[in-house]
Amino acid sequence: MAGSGATGVTGDKIAVIGAGSWGTAFSVVLADAGNQVCLWSRREEVAASINERHENVDYLPGIELPRAITASHDPEKALAGADVVVLAVPSQSLRDNLPTFLPFLEPDAVLVSLMKGVELGSLKRMSEVIAEVGDIAPGRIAVVSGPNLALEIARREPAASVVACADEDVATMLQRRVHSPAFRPYTSVDVLGCEFGGAYKNVVALCVGMAVGLGFGDNTTASLITRGLAETARLAMRLGANPLTLMGLAGLGDLVATCSSPLSRNRTFGEKLGQGLTVEEIYASTRQVAEGAKSCSSLRALAARSDVDVPIADAVDEVVQGRLTTAGLMEAFINRDTKAELS
After folding, report:
1. Which of 26, 139, 283, 311 could cross-link 167 (Cys pair, CB 3.0–4.6 Å)?
2. 13, 201, 272, 294: which is the annotated catalytic residue?
3. How many CB atoms within 10 Å of residue 278?
4. pTM value?
5. Position 37 pLDDT exceeds 60
């Protein structure tokens, strides 16, 4: 997949909002693709580290960042001149964060979501929150989703992803802007399918992690991954997604990577639950966000509203809320009524 055909647009500026591990890693992709990148950081010391040491010591220690990446704590400075703005903040904080940046957007700037979650309360996808809060047309909102573990991306290990936008021309423009020697993007117009694949795989990864933490092996985890994909597809298709999207990079690809890798925050969170730690203890031990622990209740509520059976999301939410043990979760799955696989 390493791309001798990468076609970055030299000199164009892209702003990345959020200097966590994924925002920083994606900045490496953008810089390698020929863009000038300004990374906005909530904390001034993180921005200073990036500018002075070319390293994000808090989130990606040991990774040397390209000189085309600069950082700022000032939203106006970060966004000035950027025709593409990448959003990489925690999904549940997006609505509160957006008003800080909207006044400084360039006219007609395209907003790209790296976030994988469904908002608590409103049950909206991230693209819907952006459209609502920013009064921005769907053709200016895109998502990037696929099997993209941040550390591997930052190390420039070959990877692929999906760039989805309702406007196919915008998706194609972004594909060109993010195509680096190690990162191969594909286009799609199925924003809904890509977003649901990204959000739901985090919940499934929590469940897989619980199984691993309890000491179960590959048969158990493969069964959970497969049934998790079926569950994801049921809900996404009910809401209008293309089923082929769920079989692709933003669906199956992202699901396999997140459920299988020890680099996955959500799988690791689940493992710790399986080992007996509480949600509060896990939150206290890390500054990384496990989106599935936040989104499971939103996805469960959305499924209930859509009359779709989602036993994995139901059970994971019960564990996160402290109403079910991880051992009880596994027992509940085995004891569910039997049925045809494709029903």
Report:
1. 139
2. 201
3. 11
4. 0.93
5. yes
Are the C-beta atoms of 113 and 191 separated by less than 8 Å?
Answer: no
Which residue is listed with tokens 């992803």?
A: 161
Q: Which DSSP state fits 65? A: P
Element (H, E) at 77: helix 75-79
Has 201 been annotated as catalytic? yes
181 and 205 housed in the same domain: no
User: Which residue is listed with tokens 């076609």?
Assistant: 7
Q: Are residues 213 and 165 in the same domain?
A: no
Q: Which of 145, 138, 152 is nearest to 110 (CA)?
A: 138
- Structure confidence by residue, pLDDT tens digits, 83-136: 999 999 999 999 999 999 999 999 999 999 999 999 999 999 999 999 999 999
pLDDT at 179: 98
Query: Which residue reads 């509940």 in tokens?
Result: 332
Cα(125)–Cα(143) distance, integer angstroms: 11
- Domain termination site, one of 171, 189, 207: 189
Q: What is the CATH number of the domain that holds 314?
A: 1.10.1040.10
On whether both 176 and 213 belong to a single domain, the answer is no
Among all chains, which residue has been given the structure tokens 């992202």? 254
242: region left, alpha or beta (phi > 0 left; psi from -120 to 50 alpha) = beta
Asked if residue 258 is part of any domain, the answer here is yes
Residue type, position 170, single letter: V
> Which pair of structure tokens corresponds to residue 19?
């200097």
- How many structural domains is the chain composed of? 2
Residue-number span of the structural domain to which 244 is assigned: 193-334
- Provide the CB-side half-sphere exposure for 297 (13 A, CA): 13
Q: Do both 19 and 84 map to the same domain?
A: yes
Residue 207: closest CA among 285, 99, 132, 315: 315
Q: Compute the residue count for the chain.
A: 343
* pLDDT for res 286: 78
- Estimate the crossing angle of helix 326-334 against helix 311-320, to 10 degrees: 160
Q: What is the CATH number of the domain that holds 30?
A: 3.40.50.720
